C-alpha cells in the first residue's frame, strides 16, 4: 500500500534509519515522510525516528543533528537510538523457521502501527546488499540476534558474500525476520 493508505487511522509510526556509519541522505526524505504521516492523521507524539545502531554506540548531540540533517525533524518528532543490550526494549518474536535464529527486535519498531525501514543499497560483504531488511536486523535487533548473524555459522558459508542473494543464508534469515516483525515499508 502507499504510505498515505498504510498510515490512515494509525496512531504510531516508527521510521528506522541507519546510524552515522552509513552515508544515507536522511535530510532528503525524513521530513517528506513525516509530513505524509501527519497528513494521514498520525499524531506528532506517535512518530519515532529510530536510529538503527546495531551494536554500535548511540548517535547523540551534534552527531545526531548531522545524521538527521534537518532541525525540523528533531523539533517535531521523537528521535531515539536503539540499544541492542537493553533486554526490556526488545520483543521476542521466536525463532526463524529455516535456521532457528532467535529473533528479538526493538519494541518501538515492532509495536508501531506503521513501520518504515530506510537506508542505502550498496554491496555488503555478508548480506549481499545493504538496505531494507538489514536496517531491521541487525540494525534494530537485540545483541543475541546480532551476534548470531555475525557468527562463523553465517560468515563461513560460501553464499554469504558481496552482491549475492541466491543461497545467501544471512539474507534469507533477514527476510524471515521481516516476516516475523509483520513487514515494513522500505525506502
Radius of gyration: 16 Å
Unreliable stretches covering 5 or more consecutive residues: none
Mean pLDDT: 95
Protein structure class: alpha/beta
Strand line-up in the sheet with most strands: 3-2-1-6-9
Q: H/E element string? A: HEHEHHEEEHEEEHHHHE
Overall shape: it is: globular
User: How large is the count of helical segments?
Assistant: 9
What is the number of E strands? 9
How is the main sheet built? Answer: 5 strands, parallel
Kindly state the percentage of residues in helix: 25-40%
Q: How much beta, percentage-wise?
A: 15-25%
Measured between the Cα atoms of the first and last residue, the distance is 13 Å
Structure overview:
With 187 residues, this protein is an alpha/beta fold. Helices cover 35% and strands 20% of the residues.
Short description:
The chain is an alpha/beta fold and 187 residues long.
List keywords for this structure.
single chain; 187 residues; alpha/beta; 5-stranded parallel β-sheet; two-stranded antiparallel ribbon; 9 strands
List the helices and strands and how they pair.
Layout: H1 3-7, E1 13-18, H2 26-39, E2 47-52, H3 61-68, H4 71-76, E3 78-81, E4 90-95, E5 102-106, H5 107-110, E6 114-117, E7 123-124, E8 128-129, H6 133-136, H7 143-149, H8 152-155, H9 169-181, E9 185-186
Parallel strand pairs: 1-2, 1-6, 2-3, 6-9
Antiparallel strand pairs: 4-5, 7-8
